[in-house]
Amino acid sequence: MQERVLEGEQARAANDDLPLSRPGRRQGRGANARPAFDRKVIALVYDFDGTLSPRPMQEYTFLPKIGEDPKAFWAESNRLAREQAADPLITYMHLMYKKAKAKGVRIDREDLVALGRGVDLFPGVTEWFEAIGEYVKIRSETNGVTLRHYLISSGLTEIIEGTAIYRHFHNVFASEYWFDPYDLPYPKRVITDTGKTQYLFRINKGIEDLRDNINQHMPERDRPIPFANMIYFGDGDTDVPSMAVMRKNGGHAIAVYPPGKPKAKCIELFKANRIDFYAAADYRRGSDLFRRTCLLIDRILADIRVQEEVWRIEREVVRGR
Ligand SMILES: [Mg+2]
Fold first, then answer.
1. Rounded to the nearest whole angstrom, what is the distance from the C-alpha of residue 314 to the centroid of ligand 1?
2. 235 C-alpha vs ligand 1 centroid, how far in Å?
3. CB-side exposure of 21: number of CA atoms within 13 Å?
4. Contact 152, 173 (CB under 8 A)
5. Which of 107, 124, 255, 273 has a CB 3.0–4.6 Å from the CB of 284, allowing a cystine?
6. How far is ligand 1, taken at its centre, from the CA of residue 189, in Å?
7. How confident is the model at residue 34 (pLDDT cuts 50, 70, 90)?
8. Model confidence at 45, in pLDDT bands (50, 70, 90)?
9. Can you tell me the distance from the alpha carbon of 46 to that of 122, in angstroms, rounded to the nearest whole number?
10. What average pLDDT does this structure show over 208-213?
């Protein structure tokens, strides 16, 4: 009896063309495509500097190349920004090239990408993407769960492109230079702390093409990646706006600290309820970070299954059965 009911349900699902009242819009595979619950993408979103990499990415290669001491450079950049009440990110992007020019060093886009190869990553980062992917595959009893990795960074797109992990990201939102039209490369896009939140909404709403407007209203149920399916990874104050957006919208956040170093910032974030967990930035399988991320993934997967079941029941209700 049970089996026959299932067969009947499957047959109905296969032929059904009723309008849907909730998530799970028709997949774009022709009029006879089988409707499916399609909010099954999990997004892991990372900050870069201090989160995946121990130090700001410019310190590994760009600053040494132009003979600048990183400490002195950031001190000067921050002092200038304060004096001029300028945006600190625009200030650093400008100052890097001003100094390169003064030293007679020309660095174009390709050079920046090449510099990315010298960026250091926390232990296990290189293997993390595949290891977490395997975990999701094993644990997702629901077919069709997809895992995506995103990067949102105030650092430089070009340098990130040169790193070994670039290929794992579904999309990278980072600051970027405009090389051609100016004598000195000019900031094309600057991603500030609060600006980062725009990209969380782009991921949430599926509007990842930066030419498309993000501010138009989109009902919650039409957003392809609910915040509840997202985990944000950050390391400190610059991530507070993103963590706040995540948590206020039902999403998740994890803070990391350098292994073996003080974790006061993480404790502060935890106490302020900005994060679910914190852990040392050790991305190797079996680490606290790995385990705690898997816990959140388990919760997300369970949530997806519950919602998919609700979606099925709603379709039955619409059909009046
Ligand atoms: Mg950071």
1. 43
2. 5
3. 10
4. yes
5. 124
6. 18
7. low
8. very high
9. 13
10. 94
Give the integer Cα–Cα distance in Å for 255 and 266.
6
Angle between helices 88-102 and 70-84 (to 10 degrees): 120
In the predicted model, what is the mean pLDDT of residues 235-254?
97
* Average pLDDT over every residue of 292-305: 96
Q: What is the pLDDT of residues 53-79, one digit of tens each?
A: 999 999 998 999 999 999 999 999 999
Q: Are strands 186-189 and 171-178 parallel, antiparallel or unpaired?
A: antiparallel
Superfamily of domain 40-56+121-319: HAD superfamily/HAD-like (3.40.50.1000)
Instruction: Return the number of other C-beta atoms located less than 10 Å from residue 303's C-beta.
Output: 14
pLDDT band for position 33 (cuts 50, 70, 90): low
Question: What's the CA-to-centroid distance between 46 and ligand 1, angstroms?
Answer: 9
Tokens standing for residue 272: 């302020």
Averaged over 265-269, what is the pLDDT? 97
The neighbouring-strand residues paired with 253 are 232
Upper half-sphere CA count for residue 143 (Cβ side, 13 Å): 1
Residue 30: count other Cβ atoms within 10 Å of its Cβ: 7
Cα–ligand 1 centroid distance for 193 (angstroms): 10
Domain ranges of the chain: 40-56+121-319, 62-113
Instruction: Return the beta strands (E) in the chain as ranges.
Output: 41-46, 146-156, 171-178, 186-189, 230-234, 252-257, 277-280
> pTM score, two decimals?
0.87
Inter-residue contact 126 to 164 (CB < 8 Å): yes
Q: Is 320 exposed, middle or buried (0-12, 13-18, 19+ CB in 10 A)?
A: exposed
Ligand 1 centroid – CA 259 distance (Å):
15
Q: Quick one: pLDDT band at residue 9, thresholds 50, 70, 90? A: very low
